[in-house]
Amino acid sequence: MTAPIEDAQLVEVAELSPLPGARVAICETSAAALAQARAAVVAQGYEIVIAAAGGTAVADVSARLSIEPVPDVVVVGLPGGEGVLDAARALAPRRPVLIAAVLGTGRVAAEKAHAAGADLVALRPHDSERLGPVLFAAAKLAAERKDMLTTRGTEASLRDRLDRFGHADTVTGFQQLEFFQRVLELEIKRARRYGYPLSVCLLRQLDPAKVPAAVKRDLRARAATAVASAIRDIDMPVELVPDRFLVLLPYTDADGAALVAQRIVKAVAAHPPLRGNGTEWRTSVTAGVSGVAAGGELSFAKLMRDAGAALRAAEDAGEDVMIV
To answer: Which of 11, 33, 74, 154 ranks highest by number of CB atoms within 10 Å?
Structure first.
């Protein structure tokens, strides 16, 4: 059996993405400072969507932040522009990245920006060499925030799907088919990528003739319990139709899967009989196994066809387990 390769052991090389763009809003305390900031933003290749200075700038920019599509970055002159920072933060979780433009240097400037609730600090007077790196950092941060929001939305959607599809069957305790299919897709991709073996075991439950419906249900639950007791934690069982189970066996070739199938057959046979309607009832299973060796060409459709053929062969030959 091939030893599994974990994702952490792999180093993937990806092409660098292009520099992030950004839509920028500017609120400055004077026309001169606004002109300097505009020139620096344009020189860095970013788009200016809002720009204002003077006595009404704070109110104007604050109002436009909530009306227009939210900018990615807001440059705010301090002191005087604190109201814009407050208005921008109120737009969370999709608020822009906030840059406070202040006089001073080093930690003093950072403390001023932090106290006002900004994410980053830019030093006045504005010029491209000074403001450019801060704008780049803001654009990167804005892009990462968007990615995070998208990821959260995707996660919420997946959780909803798991809530709908991931509940175990109330009789067998096995996951439902829709959930199994998602796990199956992942395992096939990993087996193809990393070259590890993969097998399936198709089981048919054989109940006595004329078994009452209530007893049949209980026999089904007992057979499922036996199946679960005979497989590993990484194996995935699922109920296909009322008389069949399927077990997916990652990192396992056909010979290894046959051994698991034998354990399942013995575990089901070893279950105590079920008493009902004055009769003792027992059930059994027959197994068909198919698998792909490490590095082999993998097709789940072929695995299922081969497992079905193996199951029919086992039934025809009166055997417990057959491999194709």
So the answer is: 74
Instruction: Quickly count: other Cβ atoms within 10 Å of residue 155's Cβ.
Output: 10
Q: How far apart are CA 307 and CA 323, in angstroms?
A: 7
**pLDDT surpassing 70 at residue 165:** no
| Per-residue pLDDT at 34 exceeds 60 | yes
Q: Given CA atoms 132, 135, 141, 142 in this order, what sign does their dihedral have?
A: negative
The sign one gets for the Cα dihedral 33, 35, 40, 46 is positive
Place of tokens 């704008």: 135
Q: Residue 249 has which token pair?
A: 């066996």
Of the chain, the end-to-end C-alpha distance in Å amounts to 18
Strands 198-206 and 284-292, bridge-based pairing = antiparallel
Other beta carbons less than 10 A from residue 132's beta carbon: 18
Q: Is the pLDDT of residue 283 over 70?
A: yes
Residue 146 in contact with residue 159, Cβ under 8 Å? no
> What integer pLDDT is reported at residue 9 of this predicted model?
44
Minimal CA–CA distance to 69: which of 52, 45, 84, 50?
Answer: 50
Asked if 231 and 289 count as a contact pair (C-beta separation under 8 A), the reply is no
Residues 6 or more apart whose Cβ sits within 8 Å of residue 16: none
Q: pTM higher than 0.70, yes or no? A: no
pLDDT of residue 160: 56
